[in-house]
Amino acid sequence: MRILIISLFLALSVNAQVTTQKTDGQWSLLVDGQPFEVKGATFGYDNDVDNYDTYFKDLRFLGVNAIRTWATGENTKALLDAADANGIKVMVGIWMRHGRPGMEDDDHFNYLKDTKGMEAMYDNAIKVVETYKDHPAVLTWGIGNEVYLNMATDEEKLAYSKLLERICSNIKTIDVTHPITSVEAWTFGLDWWETHVPSLDIYGLNSYGIGANFLQEELDKRSIDKPYIITEFGVTGEWDIKAQKNGVKLDPTDNEKYDAIATGYKEWIANKPSNLGAFVFHYSNGTDFGGTWLMTHFNGKYRPQYWAIREAYTGNKPNNNIPKVDVFNLPQETYKSGTWIPVELEASDFENEDLDISFSYNQREGSRRRRNAILPLNFRGNLKDGFEIELPKENGPIKVYCLVGDTSNNLGIDTNTINVQDTDEAKRRFKVPKVELPFYVYKDGGEMPYFPSAYMGNYKDMSVNHNHKEEKYSGDSCIEIDYNAIHSWYGIAFVDPANDWGDILGGYDISEAKTFSFWAKTDAYNVFATIGFGLIDKDKKFPDSSKKSVEIKLTNEWTKYTIKTKRLDMSCIRSGLTIFSGGRGTKHKIYIDEVVFE
Predict the structure, then answer these.
(1) With contact defined as beta carbons under 8 Å apart, do 596 and 517 qualify?
(2) Of 18, 223, 344, 501, which residue has the fewest beta carbons closer than 10 angstroms?
(3) Are strands 38-43 and 66-68 parallel, antiparallel or unpaired?
(4) Which tens digit of pLDDT belongs to each residue from 181-196?
């Protein structure tokens, strides 16, 4: 009997990894019985498995002891292993779908009607916990992200709350060693959680800027006696910026970005009795609008956020300071595109290193991808004699970025704005990004410009794998479509935005393309398919500007097919690949690779 009791005690002590505790009015997180203040960062390198160890060593240098992910995937085990090897804990994200299109993830899920979809989310959550609950890197489960924010009605929020409680209560029967967190923007989830989700242990609150200073007050107003973690934190986001110039919201200064983290963590977060810590957003390499504003790296260079995390968590100042843009002014007049205009610029570096100056621009109209894109500007001159920039072929206000790099891989950025006139651009119906050719719709299963989300026909018997490794034509992978029926028809389209059927502006301007081509084959006989691009008809608000496809009889040999596009209106192609086929008495698989506009 004594041996049995000891064995049970040892098993419980091994699994009793993470708990919350309140002592003298102060909440704390305990890991193996020891206080653990979350000094975290959200992690943006999930897919870069080969460099996990490098990233985690770098995070330790910054004083980070925990990371947050939003979901799990094929790399989660490797990520947890690498985190544990470097002494870093993980808030393991469990993704929950959003309730309306146009918001994060461009999803549109109906929590009032889609019982099958809710069961799928429930099953995924339970599977995640069962799979990883014994991994030593797990800190807490982070269920959902800003779901309440991305819902339109209280009825949907109630349905989601009930599903969330069902998930949380069942997780507690599976895993007694890790607390459960759910994540919401600001305080939008507090009242719902308090009333309908009692099984939550920790509230995850995304808050930027000085708003983080008032979260404890918001909990106190509601008499909430639970701890919280700030699950995303950084400088004030564009959504909270009121001031505009030429109708454009300018970035906070680099000093403001640094101070929000370095000072804000100490003054707004760490001294609150219900707070367990924070995850700074975002340890990642940005290349677009959000990257300059919020990320630790931009185009591979250190931004103020990187060094600010280190000061917040360790008290250490930067090893090498970010170059400073002291003055950055543009003329106030409106100019035609193509005009060269003077730039008033003064820049300095604390270490007096040589500075590399460049200019880019961004505009805040059109599709999401177009609004987010940061594009290079032609410029000439130097710091001594002054600079000029050539205004791009745009119509309306643009945000201009001055980028100042030093020889230690640091990058300072400042922004200003100017109005541009262009008659041709003013006539454009759909403002979407213009692409450079060749433009690959699919190549090697990496990041794709279009999403395989438009399912049609008998899609229940169809599965799509855009990272198939076996039957590839070239590179690392190809698209595999597996149709497990002998009758009916099916269709799949790769679209932008995801899950949209013409209600949201998306797609790309591919006007310079002369051809669209792809390679295809099958594993069966008598398989016909209609493959091309363009899906959304002109009865929708945001259609494809052209549609073109070819009907082919596929063989078991890779074959290239080409469609001429020179005479088509390619100004807004939002469905970059469409595939229609069906069963003719046999199940089959279709393989597609190297889909490109040239």
Answers:
(1) yes
(2) 223
(3) parallel
(4) 999 999 999 999 999 9
